[in-house]
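Please, structure for the following, as tokens.
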Amino acid sequence: MRFALRNGFRSRLQSRRTAQIAATVLAPLLALGVVGPLTHRAAAQSHESAHPRHLSLDAVTAAHTLPNGLEIQAGSIQSGSIQSGSAVMQVTALRDDLLRVRIGATGTLPEDASWAVLPASRTASVNVKAENTDKTVGFSTAKLRVSIQRNPLAMTVTDLAGNVITEDIPDHPIEFHGNEFRIHKRSPEDEHYFGLGDKPGPLDRRNEAFTNWNTDAFGWQESTDPIYKTIPFVLTFRKGIAAGVFLDNTWRSSFEFNKELRDGYSFGSEGGPLDYYILYGPAPKDVIQEWAWMTGATPLPPLWTLGYQQSRYSYYPESEVRRIASRLRSEHIPADVIWLDIDYQLKNRPFTVDPERFPHFDQMIQDLKAEHLHTVVITDLHIAKLPNAGYKPYDSGIAGDHFVKNPDGSIFSGVVWPGPAVFPDFTQKSSRDWWGTLYADFVHRGVAGFWNDMNEPSVFEVVSKTMPDDTQHRIEEPGFQTRTASHLEIHNVFGMENSRGTFEGVLKLAPDRRPFVMTRASYAGGQRYAATWTGDNSSTWNHLRQTTPQLINLGLSGFGLAGADVGGFAGSPQPELLTKWLEIAAFHPIDRDHTSMGTFPQEPWENGTTEDLNLRRKFIETRYRLMTYLYTTAEEMSRTGIPMMRSLFLEFPNASKDRHPIDLNTNNEFLMGPDLLVAPSPYEDMLDNYDAVLPPVGWYDFWTGKRIANKGQESMRLGNDNIPDKELQINLHPSVDTVPVFARGGSILPIQPLVQSTEEKPAGPLTLRVYPPLRAGNPCEGSLYLDDGISYAYQKGDYLRLKFTCELTPTGITVKVSPREGSFTPWWTQFSVEIYGATKPAASVTTASGPVTATYSSEHQRVAAIVPDDGKGLNLTVTY
């Protein structure tokens, strides 16, 4: 059976691999600019041949103030004199902490439109104060100061305290070469760079270089670039101060850090508008919230999407899907989702079901629902080219003129999974609306979510692995000029507009249910429409390690609802690797086990011993006990844009002694939400002990409840905040049996009883784990958000919000729960309050109603009491 599957796998991927081999052979030439980019460059220049062949913005030739900024004309210096400038540069303040820079090389600013930035944000404005001298022009806002040196032209942005946020390099002026442009910024040696989406490599982008060109990158490795997404947003961090730079340009673009210039970084594009934004913190969270204000936050997902998800390429026939579902339940592995890859379809044709493999598809969906399992199906964007065959997606698409075209007006066709295929023209609103209607049958059948794969777009049997550069897209979109654009302009936004069409279409079909869409390719702002994952990774220890910086940088780039193929997609993991990956992924935003055709089975009960299964089950169960905390964190993300999975510097920007990002000391640690720190071994396949770093706020072992004692935490308890970085370390021993997890001192975590799915009602009280701060006066707080998990009723007040606080007293501790906010009724009627860090039993535990019986565990250093919850709030006082 496995031999047959592997032969089928080879056949199915033959065209993809041919393209990959060809791309590998051409890679050195691509890097040298001999092929590939020359083609792009030629197409770009033919598209906008009105641009000057070469222009250097060397000096300001004229300037005038605007209510919200300034506009200048710029020229070049030739033979020692300034030439009259034809370029125009406009710098405006959208908010006091957010600037926009637009430059037109021929004296006209580019079209004021964006696929990424929300219209209300892009057109926002604040008044500024002009600040001009003989040598500079500029202005200030309530938070920033902009100063543009007249000759040579160079812009510096500082905060009002004089800290440099971004600074042009005077001897590297803004340059245009035909339609290409490049901007150089100064890079102090202690500045660090994050973001740019799912690009592999280290967390810090310093000393790296990247190309933005969405690419089907099967088998990508740590050095592979580009891969699936284009998010040209960089978060900068220096001495505790954060800022951001976003180049809003959908063409092939690039960012390089300290490669061309040791003390500089640069960004540019081969075509399109020079339109970029500067975001100011000073805290990293401030920048992330500004980014969400600009491009939108991830919508509140359905609760079930945070549950464990089982997938592979592919579960078929129908009996195999039912077997997997039955085994999940019989093994008591909590789960919420089963995914169907392309083999459920008839001959790989999107929006079809193979009647032989799935003779009772509708009944299967309902039977899975009865087991509290949601079904997510793949719906690739390539429509099989089947004229006169009764294939509705093709026939209706042709009738509505919804497909991408060649330059001669014929419909573009490329080979993908179903063979010859055509592609919807997603830059037309009418075509996205049509695309959305194709989901009606699946929605009515009860399919819960949809997977938009292959949407870079991927095309087989061509070296480029995508559409030709001159393929034509029609832009008919509110806020844009109606026109035709080449694929060079649309390629990087194609996947986002695909997922947008899916999200909006499914929402229209079921307006009171939150859609769930998973996309592989996207652009900045794509988080408004879809979750994502890191694509076709591999079953290697290095790829497990690579997952952490990828997911953190995706979160910092806006995609906070993201995951990886747990266990790895390409290849079969060692049993220990699968176990460890399932353990760590229990703390990721999306937890989906997925693998390729021809690999060994990768379900939790496969590829390992009974001990492996028990460990895998334990961590999935832990995820479900944390579900209330995870959902609360997801709701915060939907309001603020702050991701669920976080870098340490996002929560602790001043944790290190010199205020560098403490993550650079941590070797793959991360935070789930604000209060749980996960510290896996940096190299899980090695046996060496390792040092984890704990920011100086006090921490507790999540598994045992015991307070962590090390020099840094003790110094903090005694009031010494100037702690050397090395004193924040704790030495750990790697083990397949566990993953070190720590709870933040001064946090209160809601923990629920174990369930087998998010639809199952928990039985018992809601546990509040109270981890007291290390000293009186330090913050101690937590929160909880809950609703029905599926609808938009929360927007009308049908939700529950609680706030928790604690305060150390001379004799003990007081824990407070706020009165309920919102009309949603929770499943619990009691709180189990657990207070950690207790070295002896409580002398008394009381509420407003009187004494309460309490228990004490010396093993977990915990005092616990069960009290009723009447919704009116709670004050619980513990005296030792």
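Residues 832 and 866 are 4 Å apart (CA to CA). DSSP finds 16 helices and 55 strands in the chain.
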